[in-house]
Each structure stands twice: as structure tokens, then as C-alpha cells.
Design goal:
Two copies of one chain form a homodimer. Chain A has 476 residues and is an alpha/beta fold. Chain A has helices at residues 8-26, 36-43, 47-59, 97-106, 127-140, 155-167, 182-194, 209-217, 235-244, 266-278, 337-348, 353-364, 367-393, 419-429, 460-475, and strands spanning 63-66, 70-73, 113-115, 178-180, 200-205, 221-228, 232-233, 249-252, 255-257, 262-263, 282-286, 312-317, 329-332, 399-400, 408-412, 432-436, 449-453. Chain A has three domains: 9-73, Arc Repressor Mutant, subunit A, CATH 1.10.10; 127-368, Aspartate Aminotransferase, domain 2, CATH 3.40.640; 373-475, Aspartate Aminotransferase, domain 1 (Alpha-Beta Complex), CATH 3.90.1150.10. In chain A, 57% of the residues are buried. Chains A and B meet through helix 4, helix 5, helix 7, helix 8 and helix 11 of A and helix 4, helix 5, helix 7, helix 8 and helix 11 of B.
Chain lengths: 476, 476
């Protein structure tokens, strides 16, 4: 769970954190942890180092600090994470479109409790500052704010995107980036660039259903490689796939994989890039959740930061962090910019100018960073509250993910296979939307699973809704 | 120029029209034509047949009728329109992408005289009223202005689009329309809905190069059916194609076909729909120029208005009339809405909310109609000024289209085949962009042709640039 590091000082507090884990396991939820002073004395370290160790255990979700009271074992310590699928699947053409449409329609109605999508609540959207930027651009840009922005798209925006990527450890020029209509279009362009109809691509299992739909539309087969609930794609399994069959590319979400919230460690990222090189294939990196790490300091370096030879196509957007309706994403198409420009021309001709300029304005003024500073702790605490509510409301035997970023929870239910769709139907009858697990796999693997959105601030209504869902699960 | 037909009555008036052409050529612009009565007597036909012959010559742009005065040779009769291609092509996979990219790059530089694209000048973009709508939405919509608008897209906008279509004679409900990223995405979705890789589709010859690029990206073959410079797609030729080979659909721009500005007569539209039904195929109608008729009263009824059995998919946008950078278009996918929703989800997930709401606001307030009332006569007179300048600057033997709408001119040059690309290069060296004719055909048919943009108000700079191009043509 923790990573080896070369810094001896850092290693020290990690070692203490590890030593404390059995103590945490021996305690019961709500029990008080040994005091910092005592731990510092027992291990012969400073109070600061002891506190760093506690913070690390806290960030793993095992304990929590209460103001002026110390650290306590968290209620969820007893709930295990969902199990990882055991096997890689054979290549298969997905057919999830129909089921996904049912989900999408269910979440459209405002009176339905929105646990089905993966959307921020209106109060968390950066609408005030973004609206100011939109109004400013409308006021000042004149006709230039409404002329064609032919691919690769608005230069002021691409400059800001390049700056963001540099801050995440990816050195890139504005001309290497293509503005897209959200992250979905970036992913779809990436697939269209790398694949021909009938090709096989690797996805994580479970993975975002939109990727399966997209593969279906492009007539691709998918190979599902098991994803670990904490560390993401199983690279041993991936290596076996790459050694035994030709795959056009690997679709991967290293940072806060939807629906698991898993975070691929840096060492795994390096290994993944090496695998791509060795087997002469490519990755399409979905970094849409990368900015939503629950730990304040930790913005993971993208997979692309480890890519030296153009093996990684990078996709991201602001839909999960700033505002879903802006529809501005971007693609770093590695060595495929020429074809990407042509494809973009045939798909949308050009991307919208007003939203691109407004976002460039917002980024230039530091609005995005300010928003993220506020958003990240809110999202982290929201996810904790939803998780606690699920722990209370759902029957024993329920397994719950421990996301390290993003705002969805993945639940494995103590219920028979195929329960997910039944549960979705029963919930909708009670005006509650949930996402059934089976759409996260072309094999309908996760039919005992559901995904819960935590993007809307937790309140009584949400608590009641989770109570209803938990009760329905009991009766399944 | 005219096609053989099986109807003897129709054949009769065509024969008379042909016989009259030398008489027209012998007269000078402004001269009165022989009277209908005399022609009827000379040819031993009824007055009605004689009039039909006159109308045919009129539709070829050689003569014009003046109320209560008879027919006169048109002022511009000295310059004939470009000739129609003689034959339908065999099905062929287009490969225009590279050449189109060269064009697009050439028009990106602001110091280049913009005769290459098909774009309105900044002074003709409705940026003031649209910017007010954008600012108003930014001020008032709150978070709702930045949330997901999942397909089919913003309902307030679709209500306005349905109203517009009703005014054009197409009765349609908002739920039958899908908001897209410009007309290009609507066309591309239409193709993706109707075609599988390897399928053949019919296009006009010449046609908008973006359609050829799109067909290329989707791995489709195109069959080019000759387009008449005045009446558009040759339906006799189309009928032969439909009778002899399977085509997935017919891509057609009945109103002001780019690059010819041709207008398909209503009777042809009815016949086209009947052909679709008889041969069990579909049309994708590109109506992007439909609002830009040069005659004030005449907003053509779309092909879709004649469609009773879901044979026509309708595509349009505001890029040529309001503002190119808005990127709001729409698709009426006929009976294919379910698949269209899924495809749209996999391509862009959702369309941008702020621009959709701003456009809905603009349409609600009548801003679009007010803008069009101002724009249409401006565009018509601009096209005339460009056309006159070309007549003066280009050598004898140049043929020029007589667009009935839109803002491009199509020129057939007295120059050897392959001259278009040479001319484009020579022009670019002098910082003038033009569109080479060969990109308007998968067969590179029109390599003695160029397209000239008239979207930017005519001024001295444009006049000088056309002088330079004319001089270069002389030297080819």
C-alpha cells in the first residue's frame, strides 16, 4: 500500500506506519489510537515523525483525527474492498450500449436521487468564476471570440494546458496538444488513431463503461485485464496478454480509475511504459480524475510523464473538476498529430471558441487552482461520508472500495449474480439512480456490483436513499 | 449541358432551348429575346412549351425575365457558368485528407488574403447580439449553465430549432432533434449511422471536400454524380446509379451547394425523395447554406420537407449564417435516433452547455432573424461584386458560377489540367489563399477549377488580390 522510497527520513515514518497497522487492526472502529507522544517514545523518533506516520495511516483510510481529541480507528476498517477479478478475459466485442442508455436516461430526471452518474453536484461546480470568465470573453473578444478555431484549437488555451501538464511533470509544447470536446472525444480520437475495425484493445476490469461503448461503436474487441482495487491494472496479467496476442493499444486510467478509485503506483507506471515499448504497442491514458487526489499534496504524475518514446496518448478534461457542461478536453496524440488533425476536422471541423477562450481566461487567472484547493478536501470528505453511510446501511458481506481520488464508490454486494440490474430497477421505482456493475465489463462480469456517485454533497436525502438501497440489497 | 430524358414532351422543350442558345450568344447583354409567340410559331409548339424552353435557358443563367416585359439576355451572359461533369464516376475511396490539410493551413494565417475558406468576415458575424446572449447566460444560468447536457442536448435550444424547421416547412418535435458540434458532426453522425466500412455513398460532383474527407475517415467509397451549376445534382444520373448499384446513402446539398451555389428545384426534390423510396435508400441533407438565399423572399423548403417516410436525415448549423466559432449544429436522424444518441455519447458524451443556452437565448429573442435580414442582401451584393471583379481580372475563357445563395464562387479556368494546385502555390507565395478545385472530387476532377470565398466584404485589398490571381491564371 505504501511505496518504497529512497529518502531515509521519509522511509522512517513509513516504517512506523507499517508497524502501527497491526495495532489498528487489533482495535475496534471508534477506539482511540495510542498517543503520538507514546508512539514517538516507543520508536525513538520525533513527534513530527510520529505524526507523519499517523497521517499516512489516516490517508489510507484506517484512522481519522478528531479536533483536540487525537486519532481514532475509522468505522470502515472492518469492511473489505471488492475482490479483484481472477482472470483476464478473451477478446470480445462489447455490447453495452443498450444498458448504458437505460442508465443515462434514469439519471436525467431531476427528481431522481443522483447516485447513478459520476457528476459533481451543482454547488461544487466552479460556476461563479467560470461564468465571470465567459462573460468577460463575451464582452471583450469581439468577433474573434466567435470565429473558427480550426484544429488543433485555441492557442491561448493550449498554452495553459501545456503549463498544467508541465506542472504535472510532462514537458510539452502547445502545438503538441489538440483541443477536444471533452475527455470522451479525446479517448475516442485516440482509439480511432490507433485501431482498425476488428482490432483488440486492453481495458481494465472493471472500467468506465463509456470506453466499452466507444470500442463497440468503433467495432473493436476488448480484452479485460483485472484491476486491483488499490493499485489498478494488474501488470502481470497485462504482460501475459501482450506476450500472447496482438493488441492495438492499452486503455488505462492510472489515477483514480473509475469505478475503483485505484491509484497505480509510480513503479507500476514505469513498468507499464516499458511493457509498451517491449511489445511495440501504445497506451491511451485517461487522466480525467488525476486532479482529484484525496490527499492534498498528491497530484499523481501521469503515465505520460514516464513516456520517452511516444508510446502514450494522453487524454484529460475539466468535466470532473471544474464543470461538466464546458466540454473542453484535450489530447496529446504522441506521434499521431497529423492524422489527429484530419480526424478532428472530419468529426467536428473545429471546437467551440467561446468556451475555449473562457477556460483559457480562467486558467490564466489561477481560477482552476483556487477551485481545486477548495474542491479536493470537500470531495475527500464527501466520499468518506458516503462510505460510512453505506457501511451502516448495507448488509454484512458488502465490500466497498477505498478510493484514493475521484468521487465514486464501487460496491460488491452479498447478492446473487445478476442482482445489479434488478436492484437498479427496484431503486428507480423508488426514484433513486444507481449504476449497475455489469456495464463496467463487456463480459457483464460485475453483476453483483454497483457504483455509487459521491459527487453531490452528502445530506439527509442521500442518507435516506442509501438506507433504501441497503434495505433493497438485504431483500435481494 | 442538359441530360437526355425519356419523356418526349420534356425532350421537346429541351431541344428548343438548345436551338435558342446560339441566338442568345449572338445577342448582347440587355437585349430583348425573341417573343414567346414567335418562338412557339417558329418551332410549331404551344406557348407553354416555348415558355418551358425559356425557363430552361433562364435556369442556366443566360437570360432573365422582367415583369410584364419579356425575356432579356442577362448582363453577365458574357461569362458562361462552369461546365457540368459529363459522367458519373465509379465508386472510389477518396484520399483528399493531405491536400485539404494544406488548404486549411494556408488559410490560418491572418496576413493571407482569405479567398480560400468559406467563411464570413468578422464584420458579418453576429458577434454583438450573440455576445450579449453569452454574457446573459453566464450571468443568469448559474450552475445549470455548466452542467451536462447529455444527448439529445439542450431542450430550450431544441425547441427553437424545431420552431425554425417548422417555419421552413418541416414539422418536427424537439425530441426528434439531436444537438451536434456544428453541421460537420451532424453529417458525420449521419454517415456513421447509415454506412458500414466499404459501403458506397453518392455525392455531388463537385461537392464540399469535408464530405470526402469524412467518407475517407469512415472508410467509405464515393460515387460522384454530376451536379448542374444551377439545379444541382443530376437526378437522371442518380437514378442510373441507384438502379445499378447498392449505395448506403446519398449526400446532397439541395440549397446552395458548395462550391456551385446551385439550388435544386422543388420538383427535383420531390423526385429525389421518390427515388430514395423506390430504391430503398436514404439521403443525408446538408442544409448549412439554406438560410443564405440571395433573393429576399426565398428560403428554400428543405428536402426533408418532402420526406414522408423517414428517408432523409437532416443536418444544419449556424456556422455560415451567425458565427463559425459557436459550433452548434443539429441532426434530424429520421428513424435512427436511438443509435444516434449512443453514437453521440461515444463521440463527445455531451455537447457544450453555455453555447447551446446562448444560442437558444439568441433565437428566442429573434436575434437570428434580425441578423439574417441584414446579412442576406449584404452577402448577395458581395457575391456580385466579387463576381464582377473576377470577370474583369480573369482571362477570356474563364467560366464562373452564378450562385443563388451562399458566398462562394466556382471558377473553371482556361488552363491545363492540374493547374489548380500550381495556382494555389503561386497565390500563397503572394499571400493569397484560394481553394484548388481538385479537392472537391475524389477523382481530382476539377484540377482546372478554383473556389473563391466571397464571405469577407469586398474592398480594394480583395480587388487587388483577384487581379493578382487573374494575372497568374493568364500566365499558367
Amino acid at each position: 500500500m505504501t511505496q518504497a522510497t529512497t529518502d531515509p527520513a521519509e522511509f522512517r515514518f513509513i516504517a512506523i506506519a507499517r508497524a502501527l497497522e497491526p495495532i489498528v487492526s487489533a482495535l475496534r472502529p471508534g477506539d482511540r489510537m495510542p498517543s503520538l507522544r507514546r508512539v514517538a517514545r516507543d520508536h525513538g523518533v520525533s513527534l513530527a515523525t510520529a505524526e507523519a506516520a499517523f497521517r499516512r495511516i489516516e490517508s489510507d483510510g484506517l484512522i481519522e483525527s478528531r479536533p483536540r481529541s487525537g486519532f481514532f480507528v475509522r468505522a470502515r476498517a472492518g469492511v473489505p474492498v471488492p475482490r479483484m477479478p481472477r482472470r483476464t478475459t478473451l477478446a470480445l466485442r462489447p455490447s453495452v450500449a443498450e444498458r448504458v442508455r437505460a442508465l443515462l436516461e434514469s439519471v436525467r430526471h431531476p427528481e431522481v436521487v443522483p447516485l447513478g452518474g459520476a457528476t459533481l453536484g451543482p454547488s461544487l461546480v466552479a460556476h461563479e468564476s467560470l461564468s465571470r470568465s465567459l462573460a468577460r470573453v463575451a464582452r471583450t473578444a469581439g468577433a474573434a471570440g466567435l470565429t473558427y478555431e480550426a484544429p488543433p484549437g485555441s492557442l491561448p488555451l493550449r498554452r495553459q494546458l501545456a503549463r498544467l501538464m508541465a506542472e504535472h511533470g510532462v514537458a510539452v509544447a502547445p502545438d503538441e496538444l489538440l483541443v477536444t470536446v471533452g475527455c470522451m472525444q479525446a479517448l475516442q480520437l485516440g482509439l480511432a488513431l490507433l485501431c482498425r475495425p476488428g482490432d483488440a484493445v486492453v481495458v481494465e476490469s472493471p472500467c468506465y463503461y463509456g470506453l466499452l461503448q466507444c470500442a463497440e461503436a468503433l467495432d473493436l474487441k476488448v480484452v479485460e485485464v483485472p484491476a486491483h482495487p488499490t493499485t489498478g491494472m494488474d501488470l502481470d496479467a497485462l504482460e501475459t496478454v501482450l506476450a500472447t496476442q496482438r493488441v492495438a493499444c492499452v486503455l488505462v486510467t492510472p489515477s483514480f480509475l473509475n469505478p475503483l478509485g485505484a491509484l497505480m503506483p509510480d513503479a507500476h507506471r514505469k513498468r507499464l511504459v516499458a511493457l509498451l515499448e517491449r511489445h511495440d504497442t501504445y497506451a491511451i491514458e485517461d487522466d480525467i480524475y488525476g486532479d482529484l487526489a484525496h490527499e492534498r499534496a498528491l497530484r499523481p504524475r501521469p503515465l505520460k510523464a514516464h513516456d520517452r518514446h511516444g508510446r502514450v496518448l494522453y487524454c484529460a478534461s475539466f468535466s470532473k473538476s471544474l464543470a461538466p457542461g464546458l466540454r473542453v478536453g484535450w489530447l496529446h496524440p504522441a506521434g499521431f498529430m497529423d492524422r489527429a488533425l484530419t480526424l478532428q476536422f472530419t468529426q467536428v471541423l473545429a471546437t467551440p471558441t467561446p468556451t475555449a477562450l473562457a477556460l483559457a481566461d480562467h486558467l490564466e487567472r489561477g481560477g482552476f487552482e483556487r477551485h481545486l484547493r477548495r474542491l479536493r478536501p470537500l470531495v475527500a470528505s464527501q466520499v468518506t461520508r458516503y462510505r460510512d453511510a453505506v457501511c451502516r446501511a448495507f448488509p454484512d458481506g458488502t465490500r466497498i472500495s477505498e478510493p484514493q481520488g475521484g468521487f465514486v464508490l464501487w460496491l460488491e454486494l452479498p447478492a446473487p449474480p445478476g442482482s445489479d440490474v434488478t436492484l437498479q430497477r427496484l431503486c428507480l421505482e423508488r426514484k433513486i439512480a444507481i449504476a449497475p456493475g455489469s456495464i463496467f465489463s463487456a463480459r457483464e462480469r460485475f453483476s453483483q456490483h454497483i457504483r455509487i456517485n459521491c459527487g453531490v454533497p452528502f445530506d439527509e436525502r442521500m442518507g435516506r436513499a442509501l438506507g433504501v438501497v441497503g434495505e433493497l440489497v438485504r431483500r435481494l
